[in-house]
Design brief:
The complex is a heterodimer. By secondary structure, chain A is an all-beta fold. Chain A is about 0% helix and about 50% strand. Chain A contains no helices and eleven strands. Chain B is an all-beta fold. Chain B has no helices and eleven strands. The chains are: A mainly beta, B mainly beta. At the A-B interface, strand 4, strand 5, strand 9 and strand 10 of A face strand 5 and strand 10 of B.
Chain lengths: ~120, ~110
């Protein structure tokens, strides 16, 4: 399967713990996005990488959230000191280079986070 | 302030009928309008997308109608099937603003056999 993969698929943690999620984009895609989706809502943009550079962050991304894409391939999203309000589905998406002319984003299956 | 407003929240259609979902936006800088389908526990999957220089685009049973002056666009699903039962999201983006998507709140479609 050459689609976007995310790991883990489910994570249950206690309030105050740190969690880290991983996203592996489609191999030739240099653009990578993180979104958060709460129950019954559409995904909300969190952050954007082009290659290894983090070029855009939403105001939704508090200081407890940090994302990296160290070699321009996979990305990680870490949440420190989790709160119950962080419970959501965290989605990763990737896109081909800008020069391709495509604006399509391919989404992974998501990581479902539950904070107890 | 929600950038893209979607209606209805839920929709029940008989098998073979037409499902219509509507979205409206305010930002005239948006230049890409995709529709995504999402099944429970899965990530969104692209159905069809349109750019504002085109008023209609059809792919199989799915059609987007785009009204630039009204700042509205809609998804039509012809000959709706029970397998189409899912949540549908419209979105909008600006290519030169990192192409980040602004999603609508979703429409849960139930196609009855």
């Amino acid at each position: 399967d050459t689609g976007v993969s995310q790991d883990p698929r489910h994570k249950i943690t206690k309030r105050g713990q740190n969690v880290t999620f991983r996203c592996d984009p489609i191999s030739e895609h240099n653009r990578l996005y993180w979104y958060r989706q709460t129950l019954g809502q559409g995904p909300e943009f969190l952050t954007y990488f082009q290659n290894e550079a983090q070029l855009e962050k939403s105001r939704l991304l508090s200081d407890r959230f940090s994302a990296e894409r160290p070699k321009g391939s996979f990305s990680t999203l870490e949440i420190q000191r989790t709160e119950q309000g962080d419970s959501a589905m965290y989605l990763c998406a990737s896109s081909p280079p800008v020069a391709s002319g495509s604006d399509e984003q391919f989404f992974g299956p998501g990581t479902r986070l539950t904070v107890l | 302030q929600q950038q893209v407003k979607q209606s209805p929240q839920s929709l029940i259609v008989q098998k073979g009928g037409i499902s219509i979902i509507n979205c409206a936006y305010e930002n005239t800088a948006f230049d890409y309008f995709p529709w995504y389908q999402q099944f429970p526990g899965k990530g969104p999957a692209l159905l069809i997308a349109i750019r504002p220089d085109v008023s209609e685009k059809k792919e199989g049973r799915f059609t987007i109608s785009f009204n630039k002056s009204a700042k509205q666009f809609s998804l039509h699903i012809m000959d709706s099937q029970p397998g189409d039962s899912a949540t549908y999201f419209c979105a909008a983006s600006i290519r030169y603003n990192f192409n980040k998507f602004y999603f609508g709140s979703g429409t849960k479609l139930n196609v009855k056999p």
